[in-house]
Amino acid sequence: MSKKKNMAIDFQDNMILLTRKYLKRKIMCPETKFRHYVKERMHILELLKRTVDMGESNSVLLIGPRGSGKTTLINSVLKELSHVKSFKENALIVNLNGLVHTDDRLALKDATRQMQLENVVDGKVFGTFAENLSFLLDCLKSGDKKSSKPVIFILDEFDLFCEHHNQTLLYNLFDIAQSAQAPVCVIGMTCRLDVIELLEKRVKSRFSHRQIFLFPGDMSLSEQPLSAFDDRLELFQHLLSLPDDENVNRIEHQYDDCTIEPQFGSVWNDYIKSLVSNVTIVNLLKKMYQIDVSERSFRNFLAITVSSLSEKHQRLEINDFIEASKMFSQDDKVLMLEGLSVLEMCLIISMKHETEIYDGEPFNFEAIYNRYIKFANQNSSIQTVQKPVIMKAFEHIKNLEFILPVSGMNSKVEKEYQYYKFLLTSQQVMEAVKNYSGLPTEVSQWAVINM
Question: Where exactly are the structural domains of the chain?
Fold first, then answer.
């Protein structure tokens, strides 16, 4: 092989490895550009501006499910404000996390460090929590609105701070914010909708009761505007694209060790663009979006896909996306079904048939038992078991909430004749049957039979 050809191969291999490195960073370390919740973001932005520019004190809770974008929203606001001279020079930002700072002592110690008060402490070791708290409060309360530096407290996993003894930290932070002794803004982030109820009365009375909710998945895909899924397609293309000619210098500065050759990047981006219009990819992304609209899991999916790139695998094939999606698009109920015993799976299939025959009407144990026994008697390979064992399997299925008792129909009725509603779809049952390892052939065939 000629030296020139070897150099070309080495160049291509190097570009692929750099591409994988660059894309994984881009996907897993999201930029602070924020595309959603315009009103909510503006609300937070104005609160922080007023704290820094006017010396106002505020408190607010940002509430939304995991993956809804709470942290990204806050980071995008802080990134924007970091370009404002007054904010950059004056504001102190203290980040605390309920998972890390498991008690007030740890939280106060870290807050002191982040506020750069070690010099003031002058090597002093606090003997008690009360001393540390008193010192921090004195520092916060000293001066006035004009002379005190504004401090922004960001409390992630806010609900966990509510479990601290007497909620001392929260009480004092909200007290300072309410009394306006110093410009302080307290931002709590949580996924608990009932977080206000977790606050003690004295803490609640000092909180502003300002709550901002982020709910990305309120509507089904069919009810959402078309632009919602279009935005996901745009994000797909953006996250998998390499820097173009205009952005090469900026990107090179950001990722000094990931310099991508522009011509290689152009060819790569054309291919990614073709994937966006590929029917298989679009349907796959649409299915995943229906199951989970959160951007976090979507980025994790892309990171796993990109990880398949190597010197021997130099292009993202459609099958790479399909394989990676299996980790994110599987139905939890289907996974639970795959963990059932063969007997329990037979009862599930009996329920499926019973529901299909009687058009979704409720059923009782006796009906399912009779259907299973009929099947078992017709297949010599299926071992018959005693009725109490079958009842126990039925109750396990009930405890897993695959069936739901029908209210108003079960009072003073023996448990064998109590009525239940089947909560699974035929598609879920059939998918579990298909994926069930070691399920007897007769059972698989029985599931398919049109009763």
Answer: 13-24+220-329, 37-213, 334-448
